[in-house]
Amino acid sequence: MAAAVKETVQRFTAETLKAASKQSKGCYVVPLRLRRAIKKYIRDQEDQHMKRKVLRLSESFNSIKDVNLQLAASTARELIEDPLKYVGSSKRWKIKSSYGDIGLKYRDDQTIAYVASRMPAVFSACHRVLTEVKRRLPGFSPTRVLDFGAGTGSAFWALREVWPNSLERVNIVEPSQSMQRAGLSLIKDLKNLPLIQSYGSIQSLSQNISKSERKHDLVIASYVLGEIPSLKDRITIVRQLWDLTQDVLVLMEPGTPHGSNIISQVRSHILWMEKRKTRKLAKASNQESKDLMTHKVGAHIVAPCPHDGACPLDNTGKYCHFVQRLQRTTSQLAYKQSNGVPLRGFEDEKFCYVVFRRGPRPSQSWPLDGMKFDTLKEQQHANKINRESLEIDSDDGFDSESEDTITIDDDNSKKMIKYESDINEPYASSENEEEPGDENESTRADLGGGWGRIVFSPIKRGKRVEMDVCRATNREGSEGSFGRVIVTKSNNPTMHHQARRSLWGDLWPF
């Protein structure tokens, strides 16, 4: 244990803790090439009634939400509390209809409205989640990807931004032909594209590729599970997606109570399945089964959950969700309804998500192990001694330096980033731009149980910061709790400064 503590002390300082904890983004600006692609696509459609179509699309989403909320709660409890009941019905897990047949069928007018109004926000949320996956898994670089419910390609654009040089093959499952055509139209001017294959259903994908090619490094399903009214079909699809996952599975839904409930259900189900497999293999005595258990069986949560236990927010009246602010594009400003009130230059996209990875959770020492923080009085006393020891005669030609202070300009952080005219902007050649260099390894938050997640906005009251944090309660990360963490400047000015700069969605070290 002493060696682990020593290693942790070398890895983290007060400054690197801040860098590792930061996972949220400020006001995100949609990349120029995507804004241009959307604008060109809309212009090519020459539609005269776009505002009306955007409004109708919003009404369609609301109607799906109403249908889903009318489902009997007993069905959900039955499936989640007794998943084994359905395991024996193998046919039940081979859904015959594609999700588009039981959810929302996108017509051409709805597809155009979606590109104009919703695609930038969905892209921004996907980019936020995938960026954290890259930071938390520095060695992970997917080459084969499955995008289920790809729609117009929001997740694909985000994948290109986060891993621009690693993608080799992307399989797309999208039953709407209109959505497929729109997605292909939006990417037609991009260079160095990976091999892209489109399928209408998971069954079609499985039938048309060999068994050895069905496993994907990363599988993502964004904003699609909520369009499936049947809970049993939803769980069916998630099980199929997990079977197609070789390493990482990303599931995302809108940040509503219903979206959070969907994520919570599938989270519980996948963890239950893998724990059951682990228990079975643990009983086996041969070494081959034990090796399989170590390398291939089991699952842990990469994000947002810092543990693999039951969600502590269940049955509390609260729901786990996050928010990404984005600068509205010109198409959103032009076509979104505002009831006569001018639209703000930004919007907040609320989303829920969970990221699974195969295998057991890595065992890591906690980031604050072995670290000692001075109280405010101790820091002031140390600074006084340092000033006295550094006093020198003015003849030496040096001025004594005052203590460095860091001020936070909250007003600056809220200033909006204004777009220049898309027409006047030079074409961004970022297709060939080099990816920014990776942060130092010491600034990465590992997947051990020592990093909690800040859920909801921190409450900042003078020299006191209150944060609602979901955290692991043991070193293995097998159980978790949710509670309020209070940091005061007098007790720990270093961590208080970090708490003042923390945002909803950031990590918090323990």
TrEMBL record:
Localization: Mitochondrion
What GO CC terms are in its UniProt record? mitochondrial small ribosomal subunit
Decide whether keyword Iron-sulfur is in the record: yes
Record keywords, A-Z: Iron, Iron-sulfur, Metal-binding, Mitochondrion, Transit peptide
Which BP terms in the Gene Ontology apply to this protein?
translation
The answer to whether UniProt assigns keyword Lipid metabolism to this entry is no
- Acidic residues biased stretches: 431-440
User: What is a single molecular function from GO for this protein?
Assistant: metal ion binding
Recorded hits in InterPro entries, A to Z, give: Mt_RNA_Methyltransferase, Ribosomal_Rsm22-like, SAM-dependent_MTases_sf
Q: Record the organism.
A: Lactuca saligna
Q: Known Pfam families for this protein?
A: Rsm22
Specify where it is mainly localized. mitochondrion
Q: Where is this region: Disordered?
A: 423-449
Role noted for this protein = Mitochondrial ribosome (mitoribosome) assembly factor. Binds at the interface of the head and body domains of the mitochondrial small ribosomal subunit (mt-SSU), occluding the mRNA channel and preventing compaction of the head domain towards the body. Probable inactive methyltransferase: retains the characteristic folding and ability to bind S-adenosyl-L-methionine, but it probably lost its methyltransferase activity.
Protein's UniProt name: Methyltransferase-like protein 17, mitochondrial
